[in-house]
Amino acid sequence: MKSGICLLLLATNHDxxxxxxxxxxxxxGYDYAEVSxxxxxxxxxxxxxxxRSLFLQSGLPVEVFNNAVPxxxxxxxxxxxxxxxxxxxxxxxxxxxxxxxSMITMSGPNRLTVPSDQTWMDIFPSYIQFLKEYTDRAAEYxxxxxxxxxxxxxxxxxxxVSTAMDAVMAVNRPNLMTMIDSYHFTKQKDDPDxxxxxxxxxxxxxxxxxxxxxxxxxxxxDDCRQLLTPLFDAGYKGRISIEAYADxxxxxxxxxxxxxGEILPK
Length: 266
What we know:
8 strands; Xylose isomerase-like TIM barrel domain-containing protein; TIM Barrel; Xyl_isomerase-like_sf
């Protein structure tokens, strides 16, 4: 089982792509990096090449995109533009190929992009249409898509694994799954039993120490085991990425990599 590192929450206003964290993450012992698709979406090929070279020089492969939907892009509902969504799919998969990514995690439709009188059931058909196009195109690139439930305070139509599974089952493609982000899962008070029942459709995990959404250190490992061990026992064998803030990256990143490695199934 691979452990990885999400760079999004290590970014700063002066370093929006978390370039400075890449060598630290590589030395810390993570197997792969997870990069924000939205933040590299508009980069030129030269800028992308420069960014990719940082990972190549550090020996840290980029295997996963997260934060995949550019701000303001409507995925469903009356404001969704099919042509704009097709262009988005083209660009996302081009970037996946460029960076060597085999998995894209993304939130569901954002309520702020949908008129307030539209319900989940109103927009569900158009969302499924988008997902079918995206998953079919992604399959041509060998890319899996993963729907990330985001707690409802952040305006997501998909805030639970159960709701994500409604979309996964409606699309019915082998390269579409859902996932658990421990921060959102705990904040939403989502149902662990639903996760276990659908473990074959769980394609990815994000983990952070809940109190401050920080890198899990020694004092956090009981909580870490409590959440992750039932998933391992149920048969989860996918990736686990740390998506968290770090007070001291030089210390926190390697310590979390070591501690996580101690509890992952061998």
